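Milestone 3.1: sequence recovery, worked example.
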């Protein structure tokens, strides 16, 4: 065969004992591969929501942070409450700012107080009980006798939202990663649709500290 500078021999070269191979034809250009991360993220989200016991912060927080930092509202009323809920694993000023962005501007102070009260009760309770090494907040299903579904009832630009949240407590005398769960208790909210998406207008969440003799009134006896 012929190359750019003359004949190219394929075979054994005399007196040298080497083999000269004909150059391979150029490969056709590859088609660009489509990114698979949106599909993977969607599947992980579905599994996390179905299992309920997986801390949603592992998957959800990076996505929610990107959404909220873009200054946009949520794509649905339930997503607005979910975004606000995920900030409870970030008990600092950054978490507070992210939570505010999921709420209608005029209602931020009122909704922020409910979040701050819940987290303050959690910190105080853990400080009073050194035998408890941690408390993990996760999505869950309802307990017996409660409304069976989570979601929202859309009324145009306003929606009632319902989700269930469990708190698992971890103790020093228990095996690692094995906690005692409270069971799912309701978190309710009213969401408003604005120009750039859905935001929370008001919330009614189960408090961290419950009442004595009323196990469904809170997550801990405190």
């Amino acid at each position: 065969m012929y190359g750019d500078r003359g004949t190219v021999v394929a075979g054994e070269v005399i007196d040298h004992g080497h083999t000269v191979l004909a150059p391979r034809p150029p490969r056709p250009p590859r088609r660009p591969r489509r990114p698979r991360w949106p599909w993977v993220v969607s599947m992980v989200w579905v599994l996390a929501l179905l299992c309920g016991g997986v801390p949603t912060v592992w998957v959800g927080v990076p996505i929610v942070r990107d959404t909220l930092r873009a200054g946009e509202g949520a794509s649905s009323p339930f997503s607005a409450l979910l975004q606000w809920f995920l900030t409870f694993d970030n008990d600092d000023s950054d978490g507070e700012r992210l939570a505010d962005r999921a709420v209608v501007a005029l209602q931020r102070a009122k909704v922020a107080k409910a979040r701050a009260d819940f987290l303050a009760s959690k910190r105080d309770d853990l400080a009073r009980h050194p035998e408890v090494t941690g408390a993990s907040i996760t999505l869950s299903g309802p307990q017996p006798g409660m409304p069976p579904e989570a979601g929202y009832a859309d009324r145009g630009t306003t929606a009632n939202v319902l989700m269930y949240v469990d708190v698992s407590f971890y103790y020093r005398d228990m095996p690692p990663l094995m906690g005692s769960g409270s069971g799912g208790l309701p978190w309710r909210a009213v969401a408003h649709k604005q120009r750039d998406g859905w935001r929370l207008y008001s919330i009614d969440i189960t408090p961290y500290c419950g009442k004595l003799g009323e196990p469904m009134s809170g997550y801990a006896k405190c």
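Residues 31 and 37 are 18 Å apart (CA to CA). The chain has one domain: 36-217.
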